[in-house]
Amino acid sequence: MIQVRNLTKRFGAKTAVNNLSFDVQPGLVTGFLGPNGAGKTTTLRAIVGLVRPDAGAVTVNGTNYHDILAPTHEVGALLEAKAYHPGRRARDHLVALAQASRIPNRRVDEVLGLVGLADAGKRKAGTFSLGMAQRLGIAAALLGDPPVLLLDEPVNGLDPEGIVWVRTLMQALAAEGRTVLVSSHLMSEMALTATHVVVIGRGKLIADSSIEELVRASSGSRVRLRTPLAGALVPHLLAAGGTVQPGDDGALMVSGLEPDAVGDIAFKAQAPVHELARLEASLEEAFMELTQEDSEFRAQGVTGAPAARQGWGAAARGGADGAGAPAGTGTGGQAGAWPGAPAGDGAPAGTSAPPAQGWPAARQGWSGPA
Amino acid sequence: MSAPTRVLGTEVRAAPRPTGEVPTLADTLRSEWTKMRTLRSTKVTLGVTALIVIGLSALITWASVASPHHGTQAFTNPLGVIQAGWGLGWLAFEVLGALVVTNEYSSGMIAATFLATPRRVRVLAAKGAVLSVVVGLLSLVMTFVNFYVGHAVLSAYPAFPEPALGDNNVLRAVLGMALTSTLMALIGFALGAVLRHTAGAITASVAVLFVLPLILQALPTSWRNPVEEYWPTQAGSQLEQVTRQAHALTAWWGTGDLALFVALLLVVAGVLLVRRDA
User: Fold this and answer.
1) Which has the minimum average pLDDT: A129-143, A239-253, A333-347, B109-123?
2) What one-character-per-residue DSSP string does B217-248 give?
């Protein structure tokens, strides 16, 4: 179990991590998501003591990393793919790390086999492809057979077979009761790998929930309705609190209402229903919605929102472009708009946060123009 | 904790207990020795350094006795002539010392090192110790080979005196070369740990060893002499002087001066290592 409590880290004037608190539970693969520059890597490095927090604390199974007596046996981490000297043979690299942790060479050959590098151990690590470098990094992380694993972008540079291998490995490690925290910016990959996600943006917690909850809470989940009386039905849907957009082929895309409510409204309005379906948002859409205010690097005039959102996006984009605001102070009004973010210490960043009403800012922003 | 528990709705087994033994300084030393041993570039650097120091010294010795214009040095300070190539050797050891640390920063290896050994001062101590032993032993062999090669060159020219190990302070100067070389390597090492960049550390090493002493030459004598006397690399090189020089510390005070400088640099490196982010 990893506990991050009120972690704050500044680099000069830039606040990389801002009062961040969350727990990572054992037995699950927890995805650690956020746009580039959100503070994921800084947080991971703080967990293993490479970065000194300016405030707050991080503990692994209750202990600060510096105070763990045999750290390699407690936490394994893949932080940078190429954290090795290119002139050293892969096996020698692992032997040096194993010796530092009093691990026998037998284990080095074991992990080399485990990651599929048994035949490449004699090769200089500098000749490795990015995929092999990732495997070597994972081998190093597994040396001490640790109950806690941190992996920063482990599937970067892997071929499809390698991606499946990493996914299977992480799930197997979690199934053994280990704590597995995996950062990624590939939502599709996280949707397949992780059970739980922690989402941060600009160093602050945005969401800490199961993937299911996250997707369900997303305003991207909507109802597709096809009826010949679309024009007559729209006012009723709006009156009931829904937001309506024209879909392709003349269907109505309704958000803010459940399918049964939409069906009932259509029935009352005597509009024949030809098609009625719930469209789940993808994790990717949910993520985009959560983080679009918090992306640090964004091309001017192009939001990360998927194309399907065109009808909604205008107001949100125009109203809340926080890109120019200093990262340290954050976008003040916006910070309060996320009740899901823990306000102070003590309150565990629980499993239920954020609840469905945790996204009012996003919803209001998008329903306006409709 | 053997029964499965439920976390966030998922059934999980109890996390495995860590079973590892607690590593000690000896383990860190073993690891650092492996790192040193398994880099071909280190071995090549050391070998080339030995060849250049011995070869260059022999060449300078030969040149100073073979040419009648340059013979005076070989009369007044024959050992100084025999050891003339070591300035370059000291620089090479400084560079090697710097690389031992900066290599890890430039490759990203430092993260893996500190993950395995979060006690950073222990890493610094182990690295410094392995470097000292390697440079110390190699330069010990080098200095005797260098002495006998130079001796052989001199003995081909009977007009010149041949220093013997039994002569006053000669053995001290020959053995001292190993000590001074080790301290030079540690200067580069500490500068590498402070600056964390190869180019910066090498530049600083060159400055300490060659450039600043050169700049001192431009100062008026009344300023120059006291600074030169205590400038660590100048002071440290008095150990290799058979007779005491003017405006210079004695051999052992000079070595103490250099050692103190190295110690201060290492303390700065240790403090920064602990305080800074890796």
Assistant:
1) A333-347
2) TTS-HHHHHHHHHH-HHHHHGGGG-SSPPTT-
Residue B224 lies in a domain: yes
Q: How far is CA A107 from CA A89, A95, A144, A165, A203, in A?
A: 16, 9, 8, 20, 37
A1-74+146-219+281-370 to CATH, choices 3.55.40.10, 3.10.20.30, 3.40.50.300, 3.40.50.450: 3.40.50.300
Q: Which of residues 247-276 of B touch A (CB under 8 A)?
A: 275
Tell me: the pLDDT tens digits for B69-123?
A: 666 777 888 899 999 999 999 999 999 999 999 999 999 999 999 999 999 999 9
CATH 3.30.70 residue ranges of chain A are 222-279
- Return the SS3 of B76: helix
A122: contact with B, CB 8 A cutoff: no
Sheet of A55-60: strands edge to edge?
A14-24, A2-11, A55-60
Which range marks the domain in which residue B240 is found?
A: 88-146+163-275
A136 to chain B: nearest residue by CA?
B112
B109: its two tokens? 């290896």
**What's the average model confidence in pLDDT over A42-70?**
94
Q: Do A196 and B19 touch (CB under 8 A)?
A: no
Query: CB-CB: which of B7, B109, B117 is closest to A83?
Result: B109
Contact A169, A138 (CB under 8 A): yes
Both tokens of A213, joined, read 């909850």
Q: Chain A partners of B118 at a C-beta cutoff of 8 Å?
A: 48-49, 65-66, 68, 71
CATH architecture of A222-279: 2-Layer Sandwich (3.30)
Tokens 């070389």 found at: B181
Alpha-carbon distance of B248 to B199, in angstroms, equals 31
- Residue A338 burial by CB count (10 A; 0-12/13-18/19+): exposed, middle or buried? buried
- Closest B-chain CA to A74: B18
Cα separation, A66 vs B62, whole angstroms = 57
Give the side-chain half-sphere CA count within 13 A for B2.
0
Measured between CA atoms, the residue of chain B closest to residue A91 is B38
Q: Count of CB atoms within 10 A of residue A267's CB? A: 11
ipTM of the complex as predicted = 0.89
**CB contacts < 8 A (A, B):** 156
**Do the Cβ atoms of A177 and B8 come within 8 Å?**
no
Task: Please state the pTM of the whole predicted model.
Answer: 0.80
Report the residue from B11, B20, B109 with minimal CB separation from A70: B20
Start-end of CATH 3.40.50.300 domains in chain A: 1-74+146-219+281-370
- Where residue A175 falls among pLDDT bands split at 50, 70, 90? very high
Whether residue B180 contacts residue B173, with contact meaning beta carbons closer than 8 Å, is answered with no
> What is the domain count for chain B?
1
pLDDT tens, residue by residue, B106-165 = 999 999 999 999 999 999 999 999 999 999 999 999 999 999 999 999 998 888 888 888
Let me know if residue B54 belongs to a domain: no
Average pLDDT over residues A177-197: 90
- Residue B134 structure tokens: 């390697």
The shortest C-alpha distance from B22 to chain A (Å) reads: 5
Give the per-residue pLDDT at A323: 36
Q: How far apart are CA B93 and CA A182, in angstroms?
A: 42
Q: Is B248 part of a structural domain of the chain?
A: yes
The reply to whether B127 falls in a domain is yes
Query: How confident is the prediction for chain A on average, in pLDDT?
Result: 79
